[in-house]
Hints:
Layout: H1 3-11, H2 13-16, H3 22-34, H4 36-48
Helix pairs in contact: 1-4, 3-4
Amino acid sequence: MSLGRVLLSILLPPLAVFDKGCGSILIVAILTICGWVPGIIAALVILNNPKYNK
């Protein structure tokens, strides 16, 4: 996970997980609408998940 991805996940969480799939974008977008901090946490969890890292 790069520093750019971390900054992007803080500023615009759905864009940080853009290449991880439609489901990830949808989950992060819903959590961001509900509250900005849950969206950030979800984006960071998805970015740190080794299943999605290639």
